[in-house]
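Q: Got a minute? One more chain.
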Amino acid sequence: MSQGGASPALAAAERTELTTNQDLDPKRLREAFGIFPSGVVAVAAEVDGRPVGLAASSFSSVSLDPPLVSFSVANGSKTWPDLRRAGHLGVTILAAHHGAVCRQLAGPPEQRFDGVESTTNDAGAITLDDGLARFDCSIFREVEAGDHTIVLLELHGVEHADDSQPLVFHRSGFSRLSL
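A: Always. Here it is, folded:
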């Protein structure tokens, strides 16, 4: 980018170079997107009498009125078709010590909850007992967006008692915040 004293022509040339760069292959995009750190959540529910869940690093608050949050899920997900059938979903913001749990939630479906302490509410939403915050949600809307679907969730309940550090996904790996 141009520095304060660069000529307008040079600044325009730099902008043109940036906006005409067509090197948008998935590997380079993943690297560029990975520069931005994000928190990680577990999204889970009881479906047909068994726990079903996944980890997502695209969680975001959306609205206070109505209370909405979102996450994105790959259109090729084998878990989402089952999970989206649940009446309520639990969303847990993962803590810094949840790296192994996060990897487990991305592993074989039948082992995702092995040894993971969780609670299932009356509506079937599953949350991890030691998460930073836990939400009871239902699907508000799904928006197709390229190779992912943005899932908007309406909040029905929230619990947050933990003030530990969050699990952070950065440059395709887990990190911790340093304060």
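A: The CA atoms of residues 139 and 176 lie 30 Å apart.
Q: Perfect, thanks.
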